[in-house]
Amino acid sequence: MIKPNVCVLKTDGINCDEETSYAFSKARGECRTVHLNQLRSGNDKLSNYQILAIPGGFSYGDDIVSGKVLAIELISFLKDQLQEFIGKGKLIIGICNGFQVLVRTGLLPFGDIGNMQATLSHNSSGHFECRWVELWVRDNPCVFTKGIGYAIMQVAHGEGRFYAEKNVLARIESQNLVAMRYCDHNPNGSLNDIAGICDPTGRIFGLMPHPERIVELTQYPNWREIPDDVEPNEFKIFKNAINFFK
To answer: Residue 141 is part of which domain span?
Structure first.
């Protein structure tokens, strides 16, 4: 099998790129960390890749609001490349800050680049949340979450509260775009316990929890109680993306 090429986007403040690259490499993807300026200058192009991953962190220090500056750059300088990338049936995942970026570009929830219809606002607790959470997945179009059902992941964010106007939220629910929900504790006050959403094609996915932090058995908080031959269920997010191109 030819390994799909994975573009792990990097710019100032992104700090989860190495973990994201490791996860995709472990899933047998061919990963390259690509600085945004390489794409802007033309030294590299999104057309060279099958998967675009926007990792977590604090891009540009989350100046203005989380993910806003990077979202503006993507819309302003890479809109044509992104539209071509999506049009060819390729995959995009945004994790934590990456989810914030995808929502602010308009790529989530409806794939309408330049038209922001939802947001990720400050946690209802009023402070940064770093904890393990339980998540559940029901049938939905998302390529990345196939066969997961239940997961446990770490959240680490200050602006993770998913919010949309009633009509937009109703459309998200009616189109079955909620890819993942909090099921034990909602750490940020997200409407409808939303932890992650996809676009109608299922090929663009964003989530606040960090799946790249739990791709090895020893990364589970209770790993000593788990049989050695168990593979983390959360790792399926990366395997599903790679297997999509088989």
So the answer is: 5-243
Partner residues linked to 31 by β-bridges:
6
Supply the pTM of this predicted model: 0.97
Give the side-chain half-sphere CA count within 13 A for 189: 15
Catalytic residue (one of 7, 16, 31, 96): 96
Helix (H, G, I), strand (E, B) or coil at 35: strand
CA distance 236 to 90: 18
Please confirm, yes or no, whether 18 is among the known catalytic residues. no
DSSP bridge pairs for 181: 136, 194
Q: Is 183 a catalytic residue?
A: no
Active-site residue, selected from the candidate residues 16, 159, 210, 234: 210
Tens-place pLDDT, residues 78-112: 999 999 999 999 999 999 999 999 999 999 999 99
Domain count, the chain: 1
16 is catalytic: no
Q: Of all helices (H) and strands (E), which one includes residue 45?
A: none
Q: Look up the CATH number of the domain holding residue 122.
A: 3.40.50.880
What's the rounded Cα separation, in Å, for the pair 204 and 199? 5
